[in-house]
Amino acid sequence: MENWYQKTRKETEHIFQAIIKHGFVQDLMQSTLDKDIFGFYVNQDSLYLSEYKKSLVTVGTKCHRPEETQFFYESATGIIEVEDALHKLFLEDKYKNPTPSPSCELYNSYLARIVNHESVEVGIAAVLPCFTIYKEVGDYILKTQDKNVSNAYQSWIDTYASDEFAAAVQQAIDITNTYALTASSENLTKMNEAFIKTSKLEWMFWDSAYQQEGWKI
Fold first, then answer.
1. How far is 75 from 160, CA to CA, in rounded Å?
2. Would you tell me which CATH number, out of the four given (1.20.1540.10, 3.40.50.300, 2.40.40.20, 1.20.910.10), belongs to the domain 34-90+101-210?
């Protein structure tokens, strides 16, 4: 019997395929991604994660069981530790910019609205793609990349293809499935909508980095 995540993940397969076929992921995998594009991405990622970890804490506060609250709190703390290390490695001063891109702003604003104003089930579904998609992208790159080519971005790739990250992702999936079991039909519909929308926002985030997206006016 399919669980909620398996069913909803199938509905977003076209989004995942669009992500792994995107020039950003393909270039990163081949170590041909322009350094300025990656610098732009890392800066925006830093801005995004500074708000995303707040969303994780909000979701954790709403959880019904202490171990679930602890998981989301620890995930927020883990972002600080792991991402800070990556940003120190890749974020040069010349790429630092305090202004979120339109896509970054949209993603954070949407998450904040959902986790603060919707049920815990819907909030968990909204934050889940940032876990699952990064794991799948990391696994895809690690499996597909040319092992004979030294990749300048290998540290980034290894972070999201690691066993430690995989364990955290599975725990996030398990928690989401648990809440889906008792969610009302209305909340199940909202969970699906939130998961699909933030999956699309993941694609938009990478695309905005590849375009080095700025405000048009």
1. 14
2. 1.20.910.10
What is the rounded distance in angstroms from the CA atom of residue 151 to the CA atom of residue 149? Answer: 6
Q: What is the pLDDT of residue 78?
A: 84
Output the CA torsion 23→26→28→30 (10° steps).
-130
Half-sphere exposure of 150 (CA within 13 A, CB side): 1
* Other CB atoms within 10 A of residue 119 CB: 17
pLDDT single digits (tens) 60-99: 999 999 999 999 999 999 877 777 777 778 888 899 999 9
Q: What secondary structure does DSSP assign to 95-116, as a single string?
A: G--SSPPHHHHHHHHHHHHHHH
Q: Are 210 and 37 in contact (CB under 8 A)?
A: yes
Closest CA to 49 of 12, 21, 25, 82: 82
3-class DSSP string for 24-53: HHHHHHCCCCCHHHHHHHHHHHHHHHHHHH
Q: Say how many CA atoms lie within 13 Å of 10 toward its Cβ.
A: 5
Q: Are the C-beta atoms of 201 and 104 separated by less than 8 Å?
A: no
